[in-house]
Each structure stands twice: as structure tokens, then as C-alpha cells.
Amino acid sequence: MKELSVTQLAPCVVFFLAMICAWPTTSATLLRADLTHVDSGRGFTKREVLRRMAARSTARAASLQYSSSACSSSHDEVSISVTRGATGKMEFNSEYNIHLGIGTPSPQPVVATLDTGSDLIWTQCVCMSCFEQPFPVLDPSASRTFHVMPCSDPLCERGGLLVSGCNFDRKTCLYADSYGDKSGTFGTMGQDTFTFKAPNGAMDVAVPNLHFGCGQINHLTSRANETGIAGFGRGPLSLPSQLKVGRFSHCFTTIVEGRVSPVFLGTPDNLQAYATGPIQATPFVPNPASTYYYLSLKGITVGRTRLPFNASVFALKGDGSGGTFIDSGTAVTSFPEDVYQSLRKAFVSQLPLQVEEVNDLLCFDFDTTSSPKKKMPAVPKLILHLEGADWDLPLENYMLDVEDENGTDVGLCLVLGSSGNRKTIIGNFQQQNMHIVYDLEANKLVFVPARCDKL
Ligand SMILES: *[C@@H]1O[C@H](CO)[C@@H](O)[C@H](O)[C@H]1NC(C)=O
Ligand SMILES: *[C@@H]1O[C@H](CO)[C@@H](O)[C@H](O)[C@H]1NC(C)=O
Ligand SMILES: *[C@@H]1O[C@H](CO)[C@@H](O)[C@H](O)[C@H]1NC(C)=O
Q1: Rounded to two decimals, what is the model's pTM?
Q2: Which residue's CA is the nearest one to ligand 3's atom 2?
Q3: Which domain of life is it from (predicted)?
């Protein structure tokens, strides 16, 4: 454990350490937040939606160093339940927003995109240049429990922030962070009490002294009513790290349905309960230099054929390039270009429908509106062969019936893409209807097809 130089720390930080060590003491703490789907109700056509989905990625080249925690109390169950707003006709961007409160005595609303591909939790606050949000930005002066984070706090320098340092007052921690889609935030690091809604109308749960970015200059490339981003990555500033949970999980309901999606921080409920398939597990691939949750992908099957990929195309290289990781903040799964081209060829050769391109997606002409009774030919299966687990994707997790702005069917599209870099990123469109557990203690990802709306 690294030694904290307490003398350097402001009294509020000492207070902070005392508080966070004190929370929680039982293993039954339940936290809840509502999760809404980002583009719900925005009136996008499916084409626009697909373009927006493809544009959004949180790939961020962050290099993290882990600071040891100041207290070793462990982890305790917290669940956050997430809801998604009504989605209407395929109007989505496939991002999931957590709703929570910051500050006391009245928690102020914060809506943050759940992002397992980054660490920082931030929300718009004390604005110099902010994007529009549907309610007032966070006002730290209205909170009795807000403190700025001193720049002497080890998390200022070693929290995995892209840029951080002391303000001209030489006391306050300033930060800047950015995302792969050119979104970014700049501001002051602070800490305050977060309030999560307890499930089923039970009492709210308040967790004191969580660190977050008070974002004063912010830009989000694609957005809908969120006020910031909640990082669920491996770094010390992420929500799971700050809550010191050994596991967290989410279960995204079908994107077009707009039902509640639960997120749990802590040990999730019995995975068997609403399972619709086998429980499987695959180890995380260690990469101390990254906040991402890397997996070991060995191969891919389309329909009857396991494609002849050399597994090294999916593997993390010694220099940090390549690799496969799972990310809730990325919408569409993307592969290295040559892999994506092989996947397209395999679908084209196995699906007897006319091919067309829609926004760079491979689509097949199949018009259900003009001939509703026409029988859909069997769509080839898509299976990701991970170390120790075969992820057999349900059809709705890779095929989308796309319509244009007039509601006319354009076709059935393969919702996969190619990445500019050599990385394979498993996005949230592919994670629907799966209970996905990030078991940090056992260093593995556990997943099971599930009725997420029942959890
Ligand atoms: C954004 O907030 C406004 C005002 O509260 C609401 O009318 C609208 O439906 C929201 N949009 C989304 C996408 O949730
Ligand atoms: C797979 O790729 C690696 C690295 O490019 C190479 O060393 C290996 O020989 C390849 N294996 C096969 C079976 O082609
Ligand atoms: C949708 O309808 C409008 C008005 O009829 C028409 O101008 C437009 O070309 C149509 N768009 C498509 C993609 O068919």
C-alpha cells in the first residue's frame, strides 16, 4: 500500500477517508438509479440512429496507474436499477444513462452515461461552456457536503485522468478528460454525497464523498439529456472502484422496448433466476496499462462455418495495440477491417437475400411492411468464441430491421462495424438481453442470456 501523506492533505480529505472507510459495513446495501436510453423520443429515423450509433465510441487511449486504496474494507452489495425511456420506433443511439443525485440536503439530479470504457464520473457544473441539459446544472454551492479535491490528493495525479494538475490557487485539482468520439470535459475535481434510488420505491441510499469531475467546459458528440458520463472502468476513479465493489453487472433490456434495465454494484441476484440460456464465464485478459475490460476472443462462427481467423488478430499485443474488450459506452461491436470484411462475406454467402448498403452497413432487402406474410429466411447464427465460453448472440443482438424516415422498410441490417485501429470492441447493442457480470475479484466476465426486464 502506498503511503498517503496526510500532512499534505486538506482536512476535508481526511474527513473523506474516514467517511469512505465507514461505508458500507453490511453486505446488504442496495443502491438504485434509473437508466434511460439515450435517443429515446428524439425522432431520429433508423438511418440517423445507425449513423449515430456508429459514430459513438469511447475508445480512449488512457494509461492508468493504480493507486492502492486507503482503506481495505471490501465490498458490499449495491444495486443500481436502470430504466430506459420509451423508445418508440427504433429511435435509439444505444447508450444507457444512470440517474442519480449529487449533494445534500437536496440531491441535485445527474444523468450520466454508463461507460465501462472509461473511469471518471463527471457532470456539468459551474459552467463556462456547457451543452444544453434539461434541468439546471449542478450547483456545488447549494450542497452542504461538496468539497473540492485538493491537488495534493494522490487521485489527482494518479487517478487515471488524461490531464490533471493544480489550479493557480495551488490547492484545487483541475482535470481534463476526453473520449474516442471527441467528447471531452474540463473542470475541477470535487467530492460529494451521491444518492441512488433504492429499488422498488424503498428508501434512497446516500454514499458520501465520491469523487467526480465538476465539468466546466464540456462537449458531448452525441447526447440526449445526459449531464455527463459515469465511468465504470478499472481505474481508481470509476464508480465501482470508488464503491469498492468486487463485482458489478448490468442487464440491458431490448433496445426497442424501453423497459427498466438493472445495474447492480455488488453481488447480483441469483443468475439462474431469469436465465434463458447457460451461464458462462471467460477470464479478463490482464492489461495493467488500460482501464478497459479485455477479453480473449479466439474465433467467430457465422452460420455453419467457423471462419478461418488466426486468433492473433483478436489478441492484445505486447505494445498495447490490438486486443478485444467489452464496452457499455460503445454502441456497435467493431472488428479490424479484414475481419469485418470476412464476416460480411460469410453473411452474404449464407443469406439468400438481395444485398444493399445503408450507411456503410450491410443490409438485406427484406420488406416486412409490403409483404408481412413473407417468410424470413433463416439468418445465420453469430457466435463469438471466447476463452472458455461461446457467446451465441440472439438474432436481435446483431440484426436490425431498418426503416427510413417515412417508415418504409429499408432492409435487415447487420449491426457490426469495423474499427479504424486493430481493436475489437464489443458494444452494447450486442449486450442486450444478457446479464453481464464483471467479476473483478475472480477476474472474469460472467454472462447469461436473461429476461432483463424481470431482474
Ligand atoms: C429530455 O428531457 C425533456 C425535458 O425533460 C423531455 O421532454 C425529453 O423527452 C427528454 N428526452 C429524452 C431523450 O429523454
Ligand atoms: C498466426 O499469426 C501469428 C502472428 O502473426 C503467426 O506467428 C502464426 O504463425 C499464425 N498462425 C497460423 C496458424 O497461421
Ligand atoms: C419520404 O417522403 C417524402 C415526402 O413524401 C419524400 O420527399 C422523400 O423522398 C421520402 N423519403 C424516402 C427515403 O423515400
Answers
A1: 0.81
A2: 406
A3: Eukaryota
